[in-house]
């Protein structure tokens, strides 16, 4: 027996007791009595004295039947000399009388002696209960060695196999004699421990147990079972150090229980939990498909392909005929790496998160995927499982799971997990599809509602940028506009509707349309905001913004707006704001300021006033109007954003387009934003005084003739003789009406710009209007004639009165 084997025997003795290990009837440990041929006791051992209590002098020379009696009854025979004796059994159960009088159940066996002396037999006796305990222990050891489902193995200090039980032999696929002496890692090549925080190798675990004496319990070891090649198994293993009776370490004991089925069930349950946590984290169809593949590989499958109908990628559903004949797009594909290779996937191409484009795929007739498309049910073929991706009764695509060598087969449990996994993912894909459709519709609506072509203006140069949000909430309600006004003035507006989605975009469209309608009426900024406030408040009160009427959109609970009017003749800019951020004003020298402009309440609150502020801007001033998406982000508050904007605007950048790009790149790196962003940069101009002519006239009938003279002379100086006749008539009619229906003094002004502007100002507040005169009426045709001669005309009111203005094209 080698050292490790002797150590194992010594360890067993220590654990069970040496006598018990050999058996209670071992002659060196049991009670022994020596009998002669007449069954008289001629020898009495110390163990016999210990068992029955008699000293040798008390029993030697007495018949054995005075001490031991057969439990099966007494049958007498004749002793030599004619005395009857009871036969003593060769082996069996006996009763004995202890010296103190109590009876014992003993097990005995008889050994015949050879020789010529008086000693004829040796009786070996042991307590019956001790024998039963020993037999129980022996049965237990036999069961562990032959019937236990737990694999037991003993390795020496060099990690070589010394002994193993039947289960270990079965797992190894060879008897102990064939594998005895082999290294542990050679018996399970490629296996490793997967319990976090512990070594991965078998030898390293055993080494630590031998060195520290601390056992390792319930470690999970994953590898290929030699008797079941091609399938991965998982064992729950425990290791503890073995020592002999003298404390000498001679090896490591391993017990291992195959938990592959339980481990697989737990892993599949964990997979579903992980899928619930990770799949559907975004409302993006492609990223959702990627998340499904990432969760499944390598924990569930070696390869996963997600194919979606092309219509799904556009936010739509496939036709009613199902997916047969429908264009399928490989949206995501992920595989587990094999030794020496790298797996492939549809992981993002760069840090910005953009994924590779989907590609078209076709499946031949008879393939598992084609059969899945045709039947609408899952298809299992060898190591390939194809599951339809369905939501709400509609087919969206299919998912293919493939398991390579060593990954196991798709049993009924795995099929159920795959079905549940795909069903959960289908809900997320369908949600992402719906969001894609709504966002596309909202973007289309928003693009249509935003200014398409802003008219050039003599009052200002401008450039603008608009960035829709990339957040999950979809598009928002930011907007801007540049509106031509009478007298070469220009209206500048920027606004932000609270909320996202189609409703926010529609609300933005209503507000922008209202501003476009009110601005040409020369409504002052504070009054214009008051009318917008009424519009939003009425929409909320009449229930047009109830959430239950909106599918997937947020409620526009209000809006902010900034409206400004700039006059290039006076260089004055009048502004008012409703809860919006103030504009940034950059003087020609580069100094940046944010004018003190009363904030005003957001639109929709109602009942609170708005205030206008009038400032004079030097020629060439820069005015920046923007929404909060530009200056406020998740990791930057508004104050820091305004400081950053101030820094960029103070730079010497000549082109407004270039400056727009600089602002976006500095404040929104990468062009990404969590909120819509609108930016309008305006550089002011001053109209040349040589192109403006103004006169004061008395409120008398002769003023009409004087107006004709002044107009004709000024148009001659501007070389606009072709407009003399019409302009004389226009000025004469406007002055005549002012004299007749208003009061003086009168003010006549001509502006030579992109059009010819004629204005007559009086102190009245009566609104002029067109009317059709009868044939016998002596007057009332003036404004009707004027309207036929001009492109536009209107009335502008001020605190001191009103101005009637007209615009004529410079060339017929």
Number of helices: 22
Radius of gyration: 51 Å
Number of strands: 35
Percent of residues in β-strands? 25-35%
Largest sheet: 6 strands, antiparallel
Shape: rod-shaped
Helix content: 25-40%
Subunit arrangement of the protein: single chain
Structural class, from helix and strand content? Answer: alpha+beta
Low-pLDDT parts are 7-20, 73-86, 346-355, 545-556, 773-779
Distance between the termini: 124 Å
Q: Give the spatial strand order of the biggest sheet.
A: 2-1-8-7-6-3
Overall pLDDT metric: 83
Care to describe what's here?
The strands form seven sheets. A six-stranded antiparallel β-sheet has the order 2-1-8-7-6-3. The protein has a six-stranded antiparallel β-sheet with strand order 10-9-14-13-12-11, with helices on both faces. β24 and β25 form a beta hairpin. Helices cover 32% and strands 28% of the residues. The chain is rod-shaped. It is α+β, with helices and mostly antiparallel strands and 812 residues long. It is built from 22 helices and 35 strands.
């Amino acid at each position: 027996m080698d050292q490790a084997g002797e150590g194992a025997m010594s360890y067993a003795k220590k654990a069970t007791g040496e006598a018990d290990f050999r058996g209670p009837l071992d002659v060196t440990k049991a009670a022994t009595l020596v009998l002669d041929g007449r069954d008289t006791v001629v020898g009495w051992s110390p163990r016999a004295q210990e068992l029955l209590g008699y000293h040798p002098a008390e029993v030697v020379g007495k018949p054995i039947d005075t001490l031991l009696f057969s439990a099966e009854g007494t049958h007498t025979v004749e002793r030599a000399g004619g005395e009857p004796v009871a036969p003593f059994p060769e082996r069996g159960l006996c009763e004995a009388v202890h010296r103190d009088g109590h009876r014992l159940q003993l097990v005995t066996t008889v050994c015949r002696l050879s020789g010529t002396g008086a000693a004829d037999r040796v009786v070996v006796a042991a307590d019956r209960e001790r024998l039963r305990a020993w037999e129980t222990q022996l049965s237990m050891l036999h069961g562990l060695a032959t019937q236990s489902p737990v694999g037991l193995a003993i390795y020496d200090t060099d990690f070589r196999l010394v002994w193993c039980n039947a289960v270990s032999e079965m797992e190894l696929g060879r008897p102990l004699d064939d594998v005895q002496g082999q290294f542990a890692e050679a018996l399970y090549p490629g296996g490793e421990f997967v319990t976090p925080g512990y070594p991965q190798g078998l030898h390293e675990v055993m080494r630590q147990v031998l060195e520290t004496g601390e056992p390792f319990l319930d470690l999970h070891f994953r590898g290929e079972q030699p008797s079941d090649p091609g399938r991965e198994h998982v064992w729950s293993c425990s290791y503890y150090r073995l020592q002999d009776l003298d404390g000498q370490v001679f090896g490591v004991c391993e017990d291992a229980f195959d938990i592959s089925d339980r481990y697989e069930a737990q892993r599949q349950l964990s997979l579903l939990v992980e899928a619930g946590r990770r799949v559907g984290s975004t409302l993006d169809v492609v990223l959702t498909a990627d998340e499904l593949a990432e969760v499944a590989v390598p924990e569930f499958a070696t390869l996963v392909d997600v194919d979606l109908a092309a219509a799904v990628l556009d936010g739509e559903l496939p036709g009613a005929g199902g997916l047969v004949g429908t264009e399928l797009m490989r949206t995501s594909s992920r595989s587990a790496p094999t030794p020496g290779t790298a797996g492939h996937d549809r992981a993002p191409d760069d840090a910005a998160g953009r994924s590779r484009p989907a590609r078209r795929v076709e499946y031949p007739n008879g393939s598992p995927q084609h059969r899945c498309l045709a039947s609408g049910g899952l298809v299992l073929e060898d190591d390939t499982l194809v599951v339809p991706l369905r939501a709400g009764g509609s087919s969206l695509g299919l998912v293919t799971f493939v398991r390579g060598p060593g990954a196991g087969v798709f049993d009924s449990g795995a099929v159920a997990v795959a079905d549940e996994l795909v069903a959960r993912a289908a809900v997320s894909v369908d949600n992402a599809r719906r969001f894609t459709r709504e966002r596309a519709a909202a973007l289309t609506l928003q693009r249509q509602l935003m200014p398409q072509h802003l008219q050039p203006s003599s009052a200002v140069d401008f450039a603008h940028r608009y960035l829709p949000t990339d957040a999950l909430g979809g598009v928002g309600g930011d907007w801007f506009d540049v509106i031509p006004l009478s007298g070469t003035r220009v209206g500048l507006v920027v606004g932000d509707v609270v909320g996202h989605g189609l409703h926010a975009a529609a609300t933005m469209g209503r507000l922008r349309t209202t501003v476009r309608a009110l601005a040409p009426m020369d409504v002052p900024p504070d009054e214009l905001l008051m009318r917008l406030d009424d519009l939003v408040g009425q929409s909320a009160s009449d229930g047009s913004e109830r959430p239950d009427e909106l599918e997937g959109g947020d409620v526009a609970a209000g809006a902010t707006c900034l409206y400004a009017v700039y006059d290039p003749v006076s260089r004055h800019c009048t502004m008012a704001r409703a809860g919006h951020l103030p504009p940034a004003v950059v003087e020609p020298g580069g100094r940046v300021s944010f004018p003190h402009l009363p904030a005003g309440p957001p639109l929709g609150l109602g009942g609170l006033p708005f205030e206008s502020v009038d400032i004079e801007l030097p020629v060439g001033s820069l005015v920046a109007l923007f929404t909060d998406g530009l200056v406020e982000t998740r990791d930057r508050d508004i104050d820091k954003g305004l400081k950053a904007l101030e820094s960029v605007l103070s730079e010497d950048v000549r082109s407004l387009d270039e400056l727009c790009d600089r602002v976006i790149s500095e404040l929104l790196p990468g062009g990404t934003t969590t909120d819509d962003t609108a930016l309008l940069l305006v550089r002011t101009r001053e109209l040349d005084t040589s192109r403006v002519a103004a006169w004061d006239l008395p409120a008398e009938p002769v003023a009409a003739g004087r107006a004709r003279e002044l107009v004709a002379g000024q148009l001659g100086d501007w070389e606009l003789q072709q407009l003399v006749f019409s302009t004389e008539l226009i000025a004469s009619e406007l002055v005549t009406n002012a004299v007749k229906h208003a009061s003086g003094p009168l003010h006549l002004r001509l502006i030579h710009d992109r059009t010819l502007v004629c204005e007559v100002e009086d102190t009245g507040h009566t609104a002029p209007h067109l009317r059709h005169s009868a044939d016998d009426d002596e007057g009332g045709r003036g404004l009707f004639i004027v309207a036929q001669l001009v492109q536009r005309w209107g009335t502008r009111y001020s605190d001191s009165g009103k101005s009637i203005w007209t615009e004529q094209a410079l060339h017929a």
